[in-house]
Amino acid sequence: MSPAHCIYPGTFDPITYGHLDVLERATRLFDRVTLAIAVNPGKAPLFTLEERLTMLAPCLAKFPNVTARGFDGLLVNFALEIKATAIIRGLRALSDFEFEFNMALMNRHLEPAVETIFVMPNEAYSYCSSHLVKQVARYNGDVSNFVPPNVAAALRTKFAG
User: Fold this and answer.
1) How many domains would you assign to the chain?
2) Which is catalytic among the residues 19, 32, 89, 134?
3) Were 39 and a residue from 19, 54, 72, 129 both cysteine, which residue would form a disulfide, CB within 3.0 to 4.6 Å?
4) What burial letters (b/e) apply to 47-83, b meaning 16+ CB within 10 Å?
5) pTM over 0.85
6) Which of 25, 32, 89, 130 is labelled catalytic?
7) 19 in active site
8) How many CB atoms are located within 10 Å of the residue 159 CB?
9) The domain that contains 126 carries what CATH number?
């Protein structure tokens, strides 16, 4: 039997401690985890895919079984391409559930062989999102409790110019 491999998809614009908490949980459940970074131009990301990959590198150093790759298109197609059998999704609050549930059902319809697993992050991160972090950083607020130091620095640089 091949090692268990999952993908943890997201825009990660930017990655937060909540994302890293879900990632750590995924590394305990699977032999291999691919952080699947969505190109997602519809969300108008603050950081380019290359910038997000660069920010992620030091954050992933402590996870030897994790790789990061960008993707564009259907998530289930990407899962099949890299031979992942599961998708990990974080649920911060009840408000996330309806969207994630519908997405999981659509993914199951498109590719029944790929399972979706929901993981709850530590409650300390339940209200944190990339969107909120960017809003706080835009107005020079302290985001150090929500993102790694290199990400906080990248946000300061981005909003300084």
Assistant:
1) 1
2) 19
3) 72
4) bebeebbebbeebbeebeebebebbeeebbebbeeee
5) yes
6) 130
7) yes
8) 13
9) 3.40.50.620
